[in-house]
Design brief:
Elements (H helix, E strand, L loop, with lengths): L2 H19 L3 H17 L4 H29 L15 E9 L2 E6 L2 E7 L11 E8 L2 E6 L2
Parallel strand pairs: 3-5
Antiparallel strand pairs: 1-2, 1-4, 2-3, 4-5
Helix pairs in contact: 1-2, 2-3
Main location: membrane
InterPro entries: Membrane_assoc_protease, NA-bd_OB-fold, NfeD-like_C
Subcellular location: Membrane
C-alpha cells in the first residue's frame, strides 16, 4: 500500500473529527494531511511529506481559519432572546391595567403589567404593545 493512502485516511479521520468540535481546527489539519498525501504521491521522502503536512496545516490554521470563522459568525442572524424579544410585541389585556397593575397576555404567557403613562388605564380585551419589560412586569402602551 502506498503511504499516500495513509495520509488520505488521516485526512478523512481529521475531517470526520471536525464534526465533533466545529472549531475548524481539525479541518485545517485535514487539509495539511492532503498536502502530505500529495507530497507522497509526488515521490517525496517521509520528511518531505511531514514538512508538506506541517506547512499546509500552518498556512490553513493561521491564514484561512480566522477568515472562515469570521465569515461563518457574521452570517449568523442576531435575534433578541428572553424578555428583549417581547419588546414591541402586541398583547391582550386579561385583567384591567391601571396604576396598581394588571395582567396582560403576551405570546401565550400571562404577565403582570402597568401602563407606561401614569394614570392611563386599559380594560380587559384591549390591545396593547409592550414598551419594555422591567423584571417580571410588562410596561405597555395602547396598541393598534
Amino acid at each position: 500500500m502506498h503511504v499516500g493512502f495513509a495520509w488520505l485516511g488521516a485526512a478523512v479521520l481529521l475531517a470526520a473529527g471536525e464534526a465533533a468540535g466545529g472549531e475548524l481546527f481539525m479541518l485545517m489539519l485535514a487539509g495539511g494531511a492532503l498536502g502530505g498525501s500529495a507530497a507522497a504521491f509526488l515521490g517525496a521522502p517521509v520528511w518531505g511529506q511531514a514538512l508538506a503536512f506541517a506547512l499546509v496545516s500552518l498556512i490553513l490554521v493561521v491564514g484561512v481559519r480566522p477568515i472562515v470563522r469570521r465569515r461563518m459568525l457574521s452570517a449568523l442572524p442576531e435575534h433578541d432572546t428572553n424578555t428583549a424579544a417581547l419588546t414591541g410585541r402586541g398583547g391582550t389585556v386579561v385583567e384591567a391595567i391601571g396604576s396598581s397593575g394588571g395582567l396582560v397576555e403576551i405570546a401565550g404567557d400571562t404577565w403582570t403589567a402597568r401602563p407606561l403613562i401614569e394614570g392611563e388605564t386599559f380594560e380587559a380585551g384591549d390591545k396593547v404593545l409592550v414598551h419594555q419589560i422591567e423584571g417580571a412586569t410588562a410596561i405597555v402602551v395602547r396598541g393598534l
